[in-house]
Amino acid sequence: MKQFETVIGLEVHVELATKTKIFCSCSTEFGGEPNAHTCPVCTGMPGSLPVLNKQVVEYAAAVGLATNCTITQNCKFDRKNYFYPDNPQNYQISQLYLPICRDGSIEIETEDGQKKTIGIHEIHMEEDAGKLVHDEWGENSLVDYNRSGVPLIEIVSEPDMRSADEVIAYLEKLRMIVQYLGASDCKLQEGSMRADVNLSVREVGAKEFGTRTEMKNLNSFKAIRRAIEAERERQIDLIEAGKEVIQETRRWDDTKEYSYAMRSKEDAQDYRYFPDPDLVPVIISDEWLADLKARQPELQTEKMERYKTEFKLPEYDAKIITGNKKMADVFEAATAICSNPKKVSNWLMVETMRLLKENDLDADQIPFSPENLAKLIKLTDDRTINSTVAKEVFEQVFANDVDPEVYVEEHGLKTVADDGALRSTIEEIVANNPQSVEDYKSGKKKAIGFLVGQTMKATQGKADPATINQILVELLK
Predict the structure, then answer these.
(1) Domain shared by 128 and 89, yes or no
(2) pLDDT for 416
(3) Which residue, 326, 303, 324, 327, is CA-closest to 315?
(4) What 3 state SS string does 342-398 have?
């Protein structure tokens, strides 16, 4: 039976975090009324002229440096001609001949724990198109040009990936780098990071690539994984049936877990590229590039090493926390307030990760402030609340970002602080449970756990377990 190998390359579009569009001063803010963030330039009106946003060049070059690319210090823009309703000019301003970044790479960890280098063919700057809004009840489509002209970088990988796992590892690493740079929030659900998958299959051992297809409409890592696995099987089925795989662009329907053909795959000549006559070349000086290199922020590898030395975190904890910029930011801010890095790490690693999973959220969607996490840790350090109550309060902090100090006060959750009243309660429980007392005195030390539980029940969970244990040991002697 023939064995097949999957060959995958990605085109990743990242919306940059500029406040204005690439060639005009319209807002890039997500949402808003349809066609509210528009002007003659981004709607392609005759006679309007583009003016390049310098911040776009800076973000693109910063991503290139962080992904080991060579920066093209004399680059230019080209026109890519195509005729779709969401493209108001009937062309897109992009880069073909001299992209700003070339010949880079990033390192990923494969599913078997091995390191693998994924090549980056190029990174180029371009403008986004508008968005078609389809009428669910009719056959009409409307166009919203708010997104038209939003600045993008397109990161084109080499065809170096061989599985869905490698693709997800590559995308996660790429997203982390871009987020650390502050170049984009990379929110897949808002379309600020989008991936097109170029996939082909070939017999194991073959040197030539098979016929590739490109899949679009992939807005989550789960959808990307399902689309890759489905397209792999579709192509293998065609080959085994003696049929031909057609080079085409396919649209993935994640609800139906099925892709369908959109159009035949265009090549560069179909777009009739030519240099944009309205934009001058971009000249990047040695001084500007050196300054940009000097301003590159601390990325994950450096941050992870610092967490291990400065905060004495285990390597595993440091790797998980620095694996997402939002989590790293929360960790550092909370630690700066409460000066207890290990406890901050524990709350992030255990309870936060649990609730993120239960709510189907990514780490960059952590909903609470570091200030409230620090306050919760201080409440436990001061023994104002016990660990059981702390978990209860944290669920409210996670869900609603409540102030834990206010919440504890309003709900009467403070630890019972009157040792005399607590001792009296424990004495009563000891008197009412002679069998547990006898078990403990006969060497069954675990019997004390039952008495602790009864005390916690009697105090509605608001006593300090360590204090209960201490008093019980004294009484049982």
Answers:
(1) yes
(2) 59
(3) 303
(4) HHHHHHHHHHHHHHHHHCCCCHHHCCCCHHHHHHHHHHHHCCCCCHHHHHHHHHHHH
- Tens of pLDDT along 273-320? 999 999 999 999 999 999 999 999 999 999 999 999 999 999 999 999
**Are residues 89 and 211 both part of a single domain?**
yes
Q: What global pTM score does this model have?
A: 0.82
The packing angle between helices 164-181 and 54-66, to 10°, is 130
Verify that 176 and 58 share a domain, yes or no.
yes
Q: Which tens digits make up the pLDDT trace of 382-433? A: 888 888 889 999 999 999 999 999 999 998 888 755 566 667 777 777 777 8
CATH of the domain at 464: 1.10.10.410
Task: Give the confidence band of 268 by pLDDT, cuts at 50, 70, 90.
Answer: low
In a domain, 406, yes or no: yes
Q: Which of 426, 429, 435 is nearest to 464 (CA)?
A: 426
How many domains is the chain partitioned into structurally? 3
d(CA 27, CA 18): 9
Shared domain check, 434 and 357 = no
Same domain, 402 and 423: no
Whether 359 is in a domain gets the answer yes
Q: Using alpha carbons only, give the angle 337, 339, 343 rounded to the nearest 5 degrees.
A: 105
Q: What is the dihedral of CA 411, 413, 414, 418, to 10 degrees?
A: 110
Instruction: Give the confidence band of 60 by pLDDT, cuts at 50, 70, 90.
Output: very high
Q: Per-residue pLDDT for 362 more than 90? A: no
Dihedral angle of Cα 308, 309, 313, 317, to the nearest 10 degrees:
-10
Domain hosting residue 331, numbered range: 298-410
One domain, residues 386 and 430: no
The answer to whether residue 293 sits within a structural domain is no
- Region 218-233: mean pLDDT is 93
Tens of pLDDT, residues 151-187 = 999 999 999 999 999 999 999 999 999 999 999 999 8
Q: Residues 318, 218: one domain?
A: no
Question: What's the mean per-residue pLDDT of the chain?
Answer: 91
Asked whether residue 393 is assigned to any structural domain, the reply reads yes
Q: Does residue 196 share a domain with residue 150?
A: yes
Q: Parallel, antiparallel, or unpaired for β 131-134 and 248-253?
A: unpaired
Which tokens hold the place of 158?
A: 């080499």
Q: In Å, how far are 55, 82, 295, 306, 322 from 283, measured between CA atoms?
A: 14, 28, 19, 36, 35
